[in-house]
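Final report, section 2: Outcomes. Of the targets proposed, histidine kinase is the one most frequently requested by collaborating groups, and we therefore present its record in full.
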Amino acid sequence: MKFIPDEIKLTYLISIFVMMFFVGFLIFLVFIYNKRQLFFHQQQKLRESEHQNLLLQKELEKQKEIENERVRISSDMHDDIGARISALKLQGEFIKENYTHDAALQSELEELLNTTSEMTVAMREMIWSLKTENDFLLNFIDFTHKYASDFFSRSKMKLHFNNNIKDNIPLYSEVRRNLLFCYKETLNNIYKHSQASDVSILFSIDAGQLKLEIYDNGIGMPANSEQISSGNGIYNMQNRMNNIAGRLDIPQIDNGCKLVFTLPFSK
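The predicted structure is given below as tokens.
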């Protein structure tokens, strides 16, 4: 048993060598397969990345086209419609100065001049809203401050305006437009109905929420919540806030009235 013929030893060694070669060949095949799979996945991710980049590029180009169109419209409004309104106002002032004998005509002309002044203000606001450089929060806050100062300058109400926000984050046009309409509607309601002497406006960030709080020390709102929500102005403002994922709250306070507009905030 101790003696093994050389032929058997050779056969045994050859068998071992063939098995090792076969195992090595299998390992090589597995290695090649894994490399091919890895390459395939990398190519697939690359194609997906290129597709995403292409979509992103198209979206950026689309946004750029929209921005260019907004700039063009604002320029055309300023140059064309603004000039026409100014010409109309000048003509009205000329007629008013030269036909002073007709009291009825004077009254109509005064109303016409007031209307053209309001149209000029409205056009400036529209041009401001179209300019892409105003699509930021601090620009919006500066505009609302100026608007409120001009608005209440014709009344005896004292304005207190405060801003606790430092980050100039993007504020997209749809959000800006709806929030501005709510802001203007609130100030108009205060001017017409509140009988207030003081108006306080505060912009702040609280618990990840952008807050606009408007308070007046006037006669307040009805205690019945149904009466409050039934008004078209409040209903429209609630709808506008819902459209931009925000909300309008009207907390009950002892004196005056307070409206709180809240929006999700992210840097």
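The helical segments are 6-98, 103-130, 137-152, 173-194, 225-230, 232-243.
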